[in-house]
Amino acid sequence: MSLHLEPDPGNRIHEAAKHLFLKHGYSRVSMDDIATSVGMSKKTLYKHYSSKLDLLFSVIQQQEESYEAFLDNILQDKQIPFLEKLKKLVQSQTEENNLMFSLQLDLSKSAPDIYNTIQENKKKNLPKLIKKILDQGIKEKQIKKTANADIISQMFIGTFNTVFNPEYYQSQSKSLTELIDEVVNIIFFGILIRDKQKN
């Protein structure tokens, strides 16, 4: 006879809050909404989370840890060539931004300190991730040893913040994968036509 285990109440609250925050934003969701969503009283909800802000921290921390684990698996996979890793990084970062777009837009107004912390973490972590991938490209002899990884990282971040802003790339006729391929090709192979033979 198998025992039926009820889902952990704290987990249920966390998942309900995450769903509501991503769908409606932080400021438009109340603890009453979350309690109703999981079918429990606010008194019970407060036994697990002291405030809506506490819940927000939990959601953001779990999302960041999950995303970092996903990226780490990509970085550690030696079977994936560096260019493919770079494309996967850009695509996953874009999809993550797309998922979090409404929530972060709301946080920029309703909880600017938290929003700024999220952005600072991105500024600190993204260049490190790109540099690791570029270092692999150098080891694979696909990138010149003299290439400045820091400058290339900043070029990618600048491009990412512009081209892969949801408001921009969603207005394009190309798919996200096509845009990523084009950006990577421009950065690494340029836009100039090179003559096969110079006179």
What does this protein look like?
This protein is an all-alpha fold and 199 residues long. It has nine helices and no strands. The protein has helices at residues 9-24, 31-38, 42-48, 52-76, 82-110, 112-139, 149-163, 166-169, 176-189.
Query: What's the average pLDDT?
Result: 85
Write down the overall geometry.
elongated
Radius of gyration: 21 Å
Q: Give the percentage of residues in beta strands.
A: under 5%
Total count of helical runs of at least 4 residues = 9
Detail the poorly predicted runs: 1-5
Class inferred from helices and paired strands: mainly alpha
Q: Regarding quaternary structure, how should these chains be classified?
A: single chain
What does the main sheet amount to? none
- Following the backbone from N to C, one meets helices and strands in this order, namely HHHHHHHHH
* Strands, total number: 0
Alpha-carbon distance between the two ends? 84 Å
The percentage helix is over 70%
